[in-house]
Amino acid sequence: MKKLSIFALSAALFVVSCNESKADTVTSTTEQTVAGHSGESFNVNTDSSTVKWTAYHKGGLNPRFGTTKTTGLFSVENGNLVSGSLVSDINSLTTDPTAVDPATTDGKTAADLDTHLKSADFFDVAKYPSVKFDITKVEDLGAGTETKLEGANKQVSGNLTIKDKTVNVTFPAKVQVTDGKVDFVSKFTINREDWGLAYGAEGDPKDWMISQGVDLELNIVATK
Question: What is the set of domains in the chain, with CATH numbers?
Answer without folding.
Answer: 2-223 (2.40.128.110)
